[in-house]
Design a protein that fits this description.
Layout lengths: L9 H17 L4 E17 L2 E19 L2 E7 L4 H16 L32 H18 L3 E20 L4 E17 L6 E9 L8 H14 L9 E7 L1 H14 L2 H5 L20 E3 L22 E5 L2 E2 L6 H7 L13 E3 L6 H8 L2 E8 L9 E12 L2 E14 H6 L1 E4 L9 E2 L3 E9 L2
Helix pairs in contact: 1-2, 3-4
Length: 446
């Protein structure tokens, strides 16, 4: 299946989108927007040398939103026949007729919509046979076992390849779309025996498979991380500096985005209400949004409303300069959309000068966090409490691994307490942030 390509051309998706808009207009809709999409791919997982799972996917779908004045209705289908498309529009109209008017409902201002969409180089097909994917996954897992006889078990190594394309259109004259790809290699292994076992993993993901970390290097990294955790123990309850490793630092930036997104703000469920123009981070923190970076996972010329995306500085010297707003949430707040319907686009935290080892040395004494457990974030108050594991640092060097602890604080204090940012950001997601050193947090252990 993976070598067949798309079942529909871009022009066919455009034609379907146009037909939906025309039919909605004929049926009395005052406005309409639609998304037509298709995707396919496969993944193969090997465990202890044997094929564990093989998954194929080939999906397609159409979503239709119609407006009768300020009444909104939405319906969707996976049937691309003309009759099904018209039935979907009729279903959306039926829903709209029974929906209360919403003064903030409606399409974005036509003047804000994307017109000239740049090619962001997001589509790089990679169509290995399933047999080749299995061979690559085996090589990844074998490399992990080869690191040490202490690697005693495996939760599997996987290879995944996905391609998709879509067209988004509305009755204000906007129509745009593009193809994209996502490929990944991952490995998860277990080190040790009995009560002393430790699990760790590593993965890499890229638009272009030629840029993926080598499969054996992924397996080796996973094994080295698992071995490093052997002998982990609790520490005494204390307050100390905490260094969030780069993959986890990204999650903290995600917490910030959630707290400054329109839905949280207009519902008044954010600890960063009315923070525009105020210092919310340490003065060393600068965060920019760059939606047009070639090949990046967060790149897009327009948001889910069809609004054109633009470069902007979200945080400057710790001061919040912009929220993340869709057309709807902006209207609820009496503001203008920031082109963030559907989320943020390539958030980049400006790196500092230190690599991970230098950050550990700079911290002198404290906790390196490499794993977080649970979901203990209260966005109303900012309170933060997560189970954690990692390493204890003394005299600027890692002393021993740590497990079964809890770290706690308040995101407002944590953001303002960032004292260093690493230059070790990973390019495998839509947020780019190096390791973050926070001046002080509570650590609950023995």
């Amino acid at each position: 299946m993976s070598d067949q390509g798309f079942s529909f051309s871009a022009s066919q998706l455009q034609e379907m989108a146009g037909n939906i808009l025309d039919y909605a207009r004929k049926r009395g809709a005052t406005a309409c927007e639609t998304d037509v999409s298709e995707g396919f791919g496969h993944s193969a997982t090997v465990r202890k040398g044997e094929v564990d799972t093989i998954e194929y996917n080939r999906d397609k779908g159409i979503g239709v939103t119609v407006y009768l004045g300020q009444q909104r209705g939405h319906a969707s289908t996976s049937d691309f026949t003309r009759d099904a498309l018209e039935a979907t529009v009729d279903a959306a109209l039926s829903i709209a007729r029974f929906t209360a008017p919403d003064p903030c409902a409606g399409l974005a201002d036509a003047a804000l919509m994307a017109r000239d969409c740049p090619d962001l180089d997001l589509y790089h097909p990679w169509r290995p046979s399933v047999e080749d994917s299995i061979i690559t996954a085996r090589r990844c897992e074998e490399a992990a076992f080869a690191v040490s006889p202490k690697i005693t078990n495996s939760e599997g190594a996987s290879v995944s390849t996905q391609e998709s394309h879509f067209v988004s259109a509305n009755s204000a004259g906007f129509m745009g779309g593009y193809a994209s790809s996502r490929h990944s290699v991952s490995c998860s292994v277990i080190a040790g025996e009995g009560d002393g076992m430790q699990r760790e993993y590593w993965y890499d993901s890229r638009r272009d498979a030629s840029e993926l970390m080598a499969a054996d290097a992924v397996g080796q990294r996973a094994a080295e991380r698992a071995l490093a955790r052997l002998g982990a123990r609790k520490i005494k309850t204390c307050e100390a500096p905490v260094l969030f490793e780069a993959p986890l630092a990204v999650a903290l930036i995600g917490n910030f985005v959630h707290a400054t997104s329109g839905g949280s703000l207009y519902r008044k469920s954010s600890f960063l209400l009315d923070s525009l123009g105020q210092p919310v981070f340490s003065p060393i923190v600068n965060i920019s949004e760059r939606p047009h970076v070639p090949k990046a996972f967060g790149s897009s010329p327009f948001d889910s409303d069809g609004v054109a995306t633009h470069d902007r500085d979200v945080v400057v010297d710790g001061i919040l300069r912009g929220y993340f707003l869709s057309t709807y949430s902006a209207r609820k707040l009496g503001l203008q959309t920031t082109g963030n319907a559907g989320g943020s686009h390539n958030l980049i935290v400006r790196s500092g000068d230190m690599d991970f080892a230098a950050l550990v040395k700079h911290m002198e004494r404290g906790l390196v966090v490499t794993e977080l457990l649970g979901h203990g974030v209260n966005y109303v108050t900012g309170d933060y409490s997560r189970g954690a594991a990692g390493f204890w640092v003394e005299k600027g060097k890692i002393k021993h691994p740590v497990e079964e602890i809890t770290i706690a604080g308040n995101l407002r204090d944590m953001f303002r307490g960032i004292v260093a940012i690493g230059n070790d950001a990973l390019p495998r997601g839509a947020k780019h942030c190096g390791s973050l050193l926070i001046e002080r947090m509570k650590i609950a252990g023995n």
